[in-house]
Structures are given as structure tokens and as C-alpha cells.
């Protein structure tokens, strides 16, 4: 893709959702973002797998006792739930969207899927990506941004523990320390959220297919 289309085109393709995050950068800006995010993922607290237990249990609860089921959508829900928990300190619980989740969480999960599908369509038709920019896609991107921005505004709440029940700073707080503006912080979080959801869900789907 980098060889076929210039950096400017690639940036414009992803800009509606990803803004100026790591996937839309190159050179020194990309190197800075890469180092910033790398430091967060080597922290020892992310080596603890206990935080995934609740979400795996929610996935298992969604499985029927018989018949055929498409697991990939459920894997996308699973990775969205775990990634929002890791990045934002609170999960959106998309696997429980039809059970006990509020409208805001459901709207975010739905909007993220619509926005992601829109980026894929823009990617496929680049450099004519500007031809795909419908209101539904723009609203979805706006909903995702608004949701993440709300978490950013709330990150300084007093005495709030992070997702792991520890007093240490959460991922969002650590990235915030090296982000110039809240918009920069939002863009980095959305970029990592996209990667954390898609790559892991696709890996799970393919692995299970190969094993079976």
C-alpha cells in the first residue's frame, strides 16, 4: 500500500476515524508514537491474563448448545471488550449489549463497526477514497470520537482505580502525559483500539479455523 499510494493519500483515507494517530503518520512523528505506545505495552501489569477471564466467560455464554455459529463476530466483540478495558479502564461489554448495557455502550460498539467498515471501503477505492463519505459513516466516526473524548475528560476523577484494581496510572493516563492535546490523545487511543480489536479477532478466527 505504501508503494502504490503516497503518504498523503493514506493519511486522508484514514483521517475521518484515525485522525493523526500512528497509522496515519510516518517519519519522526511515527517513531515518536511507536515508542510512546511500545512503553505502555511492556508494562508488567499487561502480562496478567486474569482481566480477560470475565470477557471470555461472556463469550462462552453467547455460544449456542447446538447448531452452526459464526464465531468471528463474537471474536470482534471479545477483542473490543478487552481492548476498551485495557485502554480506557472500562469495557464497553459489547458481548452483553443485548442483555444489560446502556445505550451509550451499544451505540459506541455499533458506530465503531460502521466506521471500521467505512475505512475498509475507502482503502479499497483509494486514491478515489473521497467518493465514499456518506452521512452514516461520518456520524459513526463522530460517535466514536465523542465516546473516547468522554473517557479522556473523566480520566482525572479522584480516587479512581484502573481496570486492574491498582492505584498506578492506567494506559490512558500514561499516554496522556506525552500527548500535546486531548485530540492527539484521542487519536492515539482510537488507533490502538482499532489495532487491538481487528488483528486479535482475525488471529483468533484464523487460528480456530486451522485447528478445526
Quick take:
The chain has 212 residues and is mainly α. The chain has helices at residues 7-18, 28-41, 53-61, 71-88, 103-125, 135-154, 171-177, 182-211. 63% of the residues lie in helices and 0% in strands.
Characterise this structure.
With 212 residues, the chain is an all-alpha fold. 63% of the residues lie in helices and 0% in strands. It is built from 8 helices and no strands. The longest helix is centred in the last third of the chain and has 30 residues, at 182-211. It is globular, with a radius of gyration of 18 Å.
Please outline the helices and strands:
Elements: H1 7-18, H2 28-41, H3 53-61, H4 71-88, H5 103-125, H6 135-154, H7 171-177, H8 182-211
Helix pairs in contact: 1-5, 3-4, 4-8, 5-6, 6-8
Overall mean pLDDT: 81
Instruction: Tell me what portion of residues adopts beta-strand conformation.
Output: under 5%
Radius of gyration: 18 Å
Taken from the alpha-carbon principal axes, the silhouette is globular
Question: What is the subunit arrangement here?
Answer: single chain
Low-confidence stretches: 157-168
**What kind of sheet is the major sheet?**
none
Number of helical segments with 4 or more residues:
8
Number of strands: 0
Structural class estimated from helices and strands: mainly alpha
Q: Determine the N-to-C terminus distance.
A: 32 Å
Task: List the helices and strands in order.
Answer: HHHHHHHH
Percent helix range = 55-70%
Which descriptors apply to this entry?
212 residues; mainly alpha; 8 helices; 63% helix
Amino acid at each position: 500500500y505504501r508503494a502504490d499510494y503516497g503518504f498523503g493519500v493514506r493519511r486522508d483515507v484514514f483521517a475521518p476515524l484515525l485522525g493523526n494517530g500512528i497509522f496515519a503518520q510516518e517519519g519522526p512523528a511515527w517513531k515518536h508514537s511507536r515508542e510512546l505506545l511500545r512503553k505502555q505495552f511492556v508494562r508488567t501489569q499487561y502480562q496478567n491474563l486474569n482481566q480477560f477471564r470475565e470477557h471470555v466467560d461472556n463469550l462462552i455464554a453467547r455460544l449456542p448448545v447446538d447448531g452452526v455459529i459464526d464465531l468471528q463476530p463474537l471474536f470482534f466483540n471479545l477483542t473490543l471488550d478487552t481492548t476498551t478495558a485495557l485502554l480506557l479502564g472500562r469495557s464497553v461489554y459489547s458481548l452483553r449489549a443485548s442483555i444489560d448495557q446502556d445505550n451509550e455502550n451499544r451505540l459506541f460498539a455499533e458506530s465503531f463497526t460502521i466506521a471500521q467498515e467505512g475505512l475498509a471501503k475507502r482503502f479499497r477505492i483509494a486514491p478515489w477514497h473521497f467518493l465514499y463519505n456518506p452521512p452514516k459513516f461520518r456520524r459513526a466516526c463522530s460517535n466514536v470520537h465523542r465516546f473516547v473524548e468522554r473517557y479522556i475528560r473523566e480520566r482525572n476523577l479522584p480516587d479512581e482505580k484502573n481496570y486492574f484494581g491498582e492505584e498506578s496510572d492506567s494506559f490512558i493516563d500514561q499516554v496522556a502525559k506525552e500527548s500535546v492535546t486531548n485530540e492527539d490523545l484521542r487519536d492515539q487511543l482510537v488507533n490502538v483500539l482499532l489495532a487491538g480489536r481487528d488483528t486479535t479477532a482475525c488471529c483468533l478466527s484464523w487460528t480456530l479455523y486451522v485447528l478445526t
